[in-house]
Every structure is written in C-alpha cells, then in structure tokens.
C-alpha cells in the first residue's frame, strides 16, 4: 500500500472522489425514481360480514334412524361482489362428526390455507377449486378456509406499472373487482347418533373493494443512508484484505529488521580472534 501511494500520490484522492461520485449517482437514481415513477401501489378496503348460530342462523335437522346420524344443514346468502375469503367454523361437535361446505361455483381450498406458519406453500400454485369440501372434527372443532380468487393482488394491496394515475387505477380495479359465480353457500354437519343440541356454527365472508391508488414513493434520506452504507461496505470488502496483508507483511519486515540489527550489534561488540592478532604481529616483524 505504501509503495502504491508512493507511485501515485493522488491514489487516496482518487478513491475518495470515486466514493462520492458513486454516492451522488445512487442518490440521484433514487431521487429520479421518486419524482418520475412508473410504479403505483394500491390498497383495498375489506368488509367483513358473517352469520352464526348465536345470531339466529336457522338449521334444518334430519335424523337418519338407519344410519343413526343427525344432519344439520343451513343455506347462507353470499355477497358475490369482490368476494375473497369464506371462513366456516363449527364447534361443540360430537366425536366422529364431519363438516361439509358446498359452493356451486367452487372455492379454492387447501389444508394449509389459513395456517400462519405454513412453509413452502402458495395458494396460487397449491390450492384446488372444489365445489364440495368435507372436513373431520378435531377435539370437537372443524374449521374451513376458502378463497374465491387466488390472485394475491385482489386482497389487501398490490403494485401495477402504468404511464399515468388513471391507467394505474383502471389496472388495479381490473385486478380487484370480481363477481363470484354462486350466491348461496350450503353448510352441512353430520354427527353420529340422535343429536338434539345444535352445533355452534360461525360463517365469515370478506369482500374487498379498491380504496386508494398512489404513486410509489421512497424516503430519499433513508435511501441516501443505505447508498452510503453500501459504498463504504464495498470499499471495505476491497480494501480491508489489502490492508490486512500489508499489516502482516510490515510486521514481518520489522521482525526481520530487528533480528538483523541485533546480529549487527553482536558483531560490533565481539572481541577479535587470537589467531588474527599473532598473524598481524608476524607481518609487522
């Protein structure tokens, strides 16, 4: 490093100039993207409606003596506009009971749908559209989750690329707006035995409408700090190994210089040999 600086006294100035140039270019790129962006983000407003047995949901009860089972069934009207989620929860079920959810237009379902810690799962790829889905009870509870649309952009928020705000709004509305094909959801619970206690049933439906479309925006100050950090990190990755090698080599050179100086000092203080003195006397005689 010392040799490099000796050969090029302006090396340090060059490195600093290059660093500030990169910082300026990154900052300008962030700023330019902020004032003239083609990306727009949109959000949706969710409306949650539901019915439950506690609110007076009516069941049709049928006892089959030959099979010794009791069937509870109910029809629920669906808001078809921009329907996204359909969640059905049944509690206080008898051991061996089953929950069946039927939708004529079909809902997208999967065993991992609705599981918060699900890994390697994407409903857009793994879910299947079924008209009828049957689930068994576990500890007296059966829970069903279904999606009317699998596109994640139709739920909560999303991003579109457009030339103007009007075009972005139209594109976002096309993604969010949908109309489900069925207006009625039929829920059936089958329990073994002659049951007279109505199960606790809760049905929740989520409809989402386009709320707001805004240009994508970034915090220029934060991006500048990140750009500065990235530049320093890049130079650190490049220069730290060189400085480390230089420090190790200098330490070895100093150790060698110290040994050489010690050897020279020992040679200077050591007495002359006897044989060399006698030879000098004879030559003088």
Topology:
Blueprint: H1 2-7, H2 11-35, E1 39-52, E2 60-64, E3 69-77, E4 83-91, E5 98-109, H3 123-126, E6 128-136, E7 142-147, E8 157-161, H4 165-176, E9 184-192, E10 200-215, H5 220-269, H6 274-284
Helix pairs in contact: 2-5
What fraction of residues sit in β-strands? 25-35%
Overall, the morphology is elongated
Oligomeric assembly = single chain
Into which percent range does the helicity of residues fall? 25-40%
The span between the termini is 60 Å
* Poorly predicted segments: 278-285
How many domain units? Answer: 2
Mean of pLDDT: 83
Overall number of strands? 10
C-alpha Rg (nearest Å): 40 Å
What kind of sheet is the major sheet?
Answer: 5 strands, antiparallel
**Count of individual helical segments:** 6
Based on secondary structure, the structural category is alpha+beta
How are strands sequenced across the largest beta sheet?
Answer: 7-4-10-1-8
Give the ordered list of helices and strands: HHEEEEEHEEEHEEHH
Task: Provide tags for this entry.
single chain; alpha+beta; 285 residues; five-stranded antiparallel sheet; elongated; 38% helix; disordered C terminus; 33% strand; 2 domains
Write a structural description.
The two termini are 60 Å apart. It is built from six helices and ten strands, in the order ααβββββαβββαββαα. The model is unreliable at 278-285 (pLDDT under 50). It has helices at residues 2-7, 11-35, 123-126, 165-176, 220-269, 274-284, and strands at 39-52, 60-64, 69-77, 83-91, 98-109, 128-136, 142-147, 157-161, 184-192, 200-215. It is elongated and about 125 Å long. The chain has a five-stranded antiparallel sheet, covered by helices on one side. It folds into two domains: 2-35 and 220-271, no CATH class; 39-215, no CATH class. Helices cover 38% and strands 33% of the residues. Helix 2 (11-35) runs antiparallel to helix 5 (220-269). It is of the alpha+beta class.
């Amino acid at each position: 490093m010392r040799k490099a600086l000796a050969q090029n006294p302006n090396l340090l100035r060059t490195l600093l100039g290059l660093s500030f140039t990169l910082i300026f270019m990154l900052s300008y790129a962030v700023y330019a993207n902020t004032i003239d962006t083609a990306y727009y983000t949109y959000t949706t407003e969710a409306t949650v409606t539901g019915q439950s047995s506690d609110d007076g949901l009516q069941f049709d009860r049928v006892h089959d003596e030959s099979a010794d089972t009791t069937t509870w069934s109910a029809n629920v009207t669906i808001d078809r506009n921009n329907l996204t989620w359909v969640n059905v929860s049944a509690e206080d079920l008898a051991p061996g009971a089953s929950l069946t959810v039927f939708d004529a237009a079909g809902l997208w379902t999967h065993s991992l749908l609705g599981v918060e810690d699900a890994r390697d799962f994407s409903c857009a790829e793994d879910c299947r559209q079924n008209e009828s889905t049957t689930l068994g009870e576990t500890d007296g509870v059966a829970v069903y989750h279904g999606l009317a649309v699998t596109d994640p952009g139709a739920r909560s928020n999303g991003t579109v690329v457009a030339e103007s705000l009007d075009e972005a709004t139209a594109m976002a509305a096309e993604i969010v707006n949908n109309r489900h094909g069925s207006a009625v959801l039929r829920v059936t619970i089958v329990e073994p035995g002659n049951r007279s206690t109505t199960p606790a049933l809760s049905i929740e439906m989520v409809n989402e409408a386009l709320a707001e479309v805004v240009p994508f925006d970034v915090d220029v100050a934060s991006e500048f700090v990140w750009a500065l950090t990235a530049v320093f990190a890049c130079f650190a990755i490049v220069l730290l190994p060189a400085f480390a090698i230089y420090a190790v080599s200098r330490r070895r050179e100093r150790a060698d210089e110290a040994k050489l100086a010690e050897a020279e000092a020992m040679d200077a203080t050591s007495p002359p040999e006897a044989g060399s003195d006698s030879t000098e006397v004879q030559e003088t005689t």
